[in-house]
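Below: protein 1.
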Amino acid sequence: MMANILVVEDETAIADLILMNLRLVGHNGLHVSDGNEVMVNIEEQRPDLIILDVMLPGRDGFELMKEIGPLGIPVIFLTAKEELADKITGLKLGADDYMVKPFATIELLTRIETVLKRYKASGHGFELDNLEVRFDEHLVLLNNEQVELTTKEFMLLEILIRNKNIALSRDKLLELVWGFDYMGETRTIDVHVQKLRKKLHLEDRIKTVFKVGYRLEVPR
């Protein structure tokens, strides 16, 4: 399966090697070397998988993982750190795998395929009541009829789905959908939530959490 893979790595030689091998096996490789540019790139490109170095200029991989995790994008940490505590930290933050430099390229490619297959098998879709969401196709169906959502509405819906039954603050939602440097007000979230409720008949599903934010309630 061809995938868009974001390589977050500040060592040019290593990044070039990974990108070359990704293209050889049919993937589309994208590269970012500065931790401060990662979240903006993710918002613009919406990669299928992220290879994330821990030691980066700007923001490190562990810090970034706290923001990437709720987005539901699989992550493979790639780092020179061999300490067990670092591996545990990465996995606890939600990474799908962890590789230590130096590494064999064939092993990295194999792990990428394994994670992609597992992620694909876990479902890129969501169904609730009469609503169906197909993440890969960026498609939303209500009673089998397509509903048009803006890019931000779809991103907000996906984050609520990925974090179903979890209360997310307005600030966190604003950060995840609009970016950590967005200067707008949290009122933006309220407006978009109201639109989602109306368009998708989710008035009884997207709950307002008093003095916090919102939670998508689904049967456990």
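Below: protein 2.
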Amino acid sequence: MILPIYIYGHPVLRKVAQDIDPANYSNLKELIDNMFETMYGADGVGLAGPQVGLEDRIFVVDLSPLADDGHPEFKDFKKAFINAHIIERSGELDSSEEGCLSIPGIHEKVSRESQIRIQYIDEDLQPRDETYSGYMARVIQHEYDHIEGILFIDKISPLRKRMVKGKLANMEKGKVACAYRIKTVR
């Protein structure tokens, strides 16, 4: 089932998500499937719980569609991250353009560390402790920020923030059009 994606201005996007008990979380598998379906319907590569109105510490990432675009390393990279905690960030700062399904129509350069170490529970309820680098690390950090109540626009320069201020104000007023199902504050 495709869920509505919560748009900038909705308070749930600014809340720090809480760890869940995956073994006793009703319909966890269904939620993960719905999050992937919602993400695919919006042409995204990642989606976090707060983006679908949940205060739960969960996000999904699927980079496998990029394998056909010259990135074979992403071939089987489809994962759910439950109760994720980044425990280390390292490497060079890399600046690349990012966008977000909750902030449609805005793309800005964001600097992020090139490598992370993250602990989480996977979809099969197995604990994981993994290290990622490059684009995988960037996407995971973007989604991880969502469960920390942080949006990518929080990481852009003050000048760029002023330049997108009008678009963000319109989103807060519910003035936004998307090709996917959304939920605004209004």
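The chain has one domain: 5-183.
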